[in-house]
Amino acid sequence: MRTTRDDERARRICSLALAFMNASAPLPSSEVARRFYPDLSPDSFRRAFSRDRAVLDVCGMHVEEAGEVAGESSWRAGDSSFAGTLELGAREAAALEVACQPLLSDPEFPLSGDLRIALAKVSRAFVDETAGSRESRQEPRTLAPLREALVRARAARITYTDARGETTTRRIAPYGFFGLRDELYLVAGLLDDEGRIVPNNTRTYRVGRVVSAEVVEDVACEVPEGFSVLDWRRLPFQIGPTSTRASFEVPAERADDLRSAAGASGSFLRQGGRLVWEVEVSSVEGAARWAVAEGLVPLGPAEVVDAWRNVLEGVLGDAS
Questions:
Q1: b (16+ CB within 10 A) / e for 1-23
Q2: For residue 113, what is the enclosing H or E element?
Q3: DSSP letter at 66?
Q4: How far apart are CA 45 and CA 73, in angstroms?
């Protein structure tokens, strides 16, 4: 996820819109400044908030002054910001369902729960679907605060149990989510006691292993310049500590498909007229199975070659 100043402003404006739509009472200026403009002086906050209100107004969200609370201005979403009762026709609801169904059923999409609720508000056709989905699939309860911390550029305090069963509590700076094999993962930097990034401590956390999570309101954090969550997405055999580095010969007809599947994992090079893919491996057996499925031939090390042969022998044995 590569972010620019425009990206950050768009994220802030979206967060403002959600905050005012969900607010049960007018928001004081001090709260707006603390939540969305923590690094600005009072004068800079007033100018930036004024500009953002103008953008919200163009988008149909009219934020108006609602008088004073404890001696300061407060703000609310005007009545004109909300649409009246509107029901989609059967054809429109069906088209919306077809368009959104892949995301609704994708366990790797972190906003599927919110999308279901939003669709239920748009059309009654989705109300039963939403109720059934809640029973059939519960997203981790820790996902909401982690997602909020990322959207609002805040730190998060988590209690995490790793693959070895060790549980620790730490403060992190969320950078982005990615999905793998029906699991959701968060890439985040580690923060010290002063709220500063600890160098060389960016890690991948499985959301399902986060025992508890909360937003740290007084610690702001930003996604690093040039960060892309795609650089952290792993292949199925790369979850866990690296055990070896393997090389595979890539058939010419599989080159484009493999580059797409591999993403940022590994490197491609030419050796003696053939294309070779080198990649870090955590599970030797997993890498062997993945190579068979992708039509790759391992060149080394020996343990990967042996595992690949065992997988092939097993497949042939099952077929006979």
A1: eebeeeeeeebbbebbbebbeee
A2: helix 112-122
A3: E
A4: 13
Distance CA 161, CA 276 (A): 37
Integer Cα distance of 288 and 300 in angstroms: 11
Return the minimum-mean-pLDDT range out of 62-71, 147-156, 183-192, 213-222: 62-71
∠ CA 245-249-254, nearest 5°, is 120
Size (the chain), residues: 320
What is the Cα–Cα distance from 296 to 290, expressed in whole angstroms?
8
What is the tens place of the pLDDT at every residue in 9-66? 787 888 888 888 878 888 899 999 988 888 889 899 999 999 998 888 877 788 898 8
* β pairing state of 274-281 and 267-271: antiparallel
Token pair listed for 184: 């959701």
Rounded Cα distance, 281 and 246, in Å: 7
Burial (CB < 10 A; 0-12, 13-18, 19+), residue 225, is exposed
CA 174 to chain centre: 9
The answer to whether 157 and 213 are in contact (CB under 8 A) is yes
Nearest Cα to 283, choosing from 225, 223, 240? 240
Angle at 194 between CA 15 and CA 6, to 5 degrees: 30
Biggest distance spanned by C-alpha atoms of the chain? 83
Q: Which 3 state secondary structure label does DSSP give 184?
A: strand
